[in-house]
Write a structure and sequence with these properties.
The structure is a homodimer. The radius of gyration of chain A is 18 Å and the shape is elongated. Chain A has a single domain, classed as Tetracycline Repressor, domain 2 (Orthogonal Bundle), CATH 1.10.357.10. Chain A is 77% helix and 0% strand. Chain A is built from 9 helices and no strands. The first copy, chain A, is mainly alpha-helical. Chain A binds a DNA duplex through helix 3.
DNA sequence: GGTTGAGAGTAGACCGGTCGGTCTATTGGA
DNA sequence: TCCAATAGACCGACCGGTCTACTCTCAACC
């Protein structure tokens, strides 16, 4: 037993937060879905907000794992690694039923009123863009991108446009917007 | 008096929905903010959900007004009109304190659980993309865009990427992501 | 090795507050 | 006179969170 009640809560929480968002994620609903008494939830987490922040942490662990697996793959040229990261992510979205990105969802919902979440999500996007920028910069130095390519800003742009495409994916429950966005970006950036 | 109670509710509702999202928009808070008794609200609107749908309708009226004012301006070449539409929109975001786009916000928050809103928001994006596609197509026929330019799909792409940049704008409370996105898109599209 | 005490974890009744929504009474202009 | 509109008390349901009671596990001790 021990810690696997906590893990069960986190696993179910990730799914529910992605689908329902923060305000529509009821603690009671989570407990019912996981057959957990309330006492256990508040034993592991001080509040619903702390729980959600930990869910974002979990989500980011997975994102970084994806970045490790793709950007770190030296058998591929750097641009192809970046592209592979997003294609891997797209595959993950498909498995989840095309509900888009949790960071985008929570960010949209809460950043208008909650400073803690606003700063947290912004920091997550920054971390992702930073790592992608590193790989783009490698591509630039190899001559795969124009010499005046602004890696860091173009990484932000890529992440932002991806999030927009992910929102559309959530609305349409299909991946075409993601694919179209990647095609356009890489054609334009290398062109 | 007459209908201006209703208008007051809609005006305040637009602001609150943009900032708080749907689930965190309390009917009571709206009534307090506008000094309106509950009886009046439910006299004009059958439910909170119907109210929010009417808010989206109002939002779209403004969007279409913006499209009319820009895409319909024959004194500018078609591509410049499209760009002006987004720059006008960016100006609107600025006035609101960079809270992004209401369609993106509500779409993200509700499309995972509420089919009515999901379909509604998707239809809104389609309507916008459709009108932009018309203008892009005009540009293509004039030779301002490549002959094989897929106007309709490129309009969707533009709208999607814009929404992503708008989310980032909301997170950072500044417009740089919007500007960067427009610069990239128009530079890349015109080749 | 059996007894016992401490603390992690489980269990769920219960709390005040707020939610969206209803109801009845009243007002005021046409 | 009539009815749109205002006014707000009131409703049951549910919200996140607290509290107490209980059940284990396991280590300390004679």
């Amino acid at each position: 037993m021990a810690q696997d009640t906590k893990q069960r809560l986190l696993d179910a929480g990730l799914e529910m937060l992605l689908r329902h968002g923060y305000n529509d994620l009821g603690v009671q609903a989570l407990l019912t879905a996981t057959n957990t008494p309330k006492g256990s939830f508040y034993h592991y987490f001080p509040s619903k907000e702390a729980f959600a922040l930990e869910l974002i942490e979990c989500y980011m662990v997975e994102v970084h794992r994806g970045l490790d697996a793709t950007l770190g793959d030296r058998s591929l040229p750097p641009l192809a690694r970046v592209r592979r990261f997003f294609e891997l992510t797209q595959e993950k979205y498909r498995e989840e039923g095309y509900l888009g990105c949790m960071l985008g969802g929570v960010g949209q919902e809460l950043s208008g009123v909650n400073e803690v979440f606003r700063a947290k999500i912004e920091q997550c996007f920054n971390a992702i863009a930073e790592r992608i920028a590193g790989c783009l910069e490698e591509a630039r130095q190899r001559g795969d991108l124009p010499a005046d390519f602004a890696s860091r800003r173009m990484a932000d742009l890529l992440v932002n446009c991806w999030e927009g495409a992910a929102l559309r994916t959530r609305l349409r429950r299909d991946p075409t917007s993601l694919q179209a966005m990647l095609d356009f970006y890489f054609a334009a950036a290398t062109g």
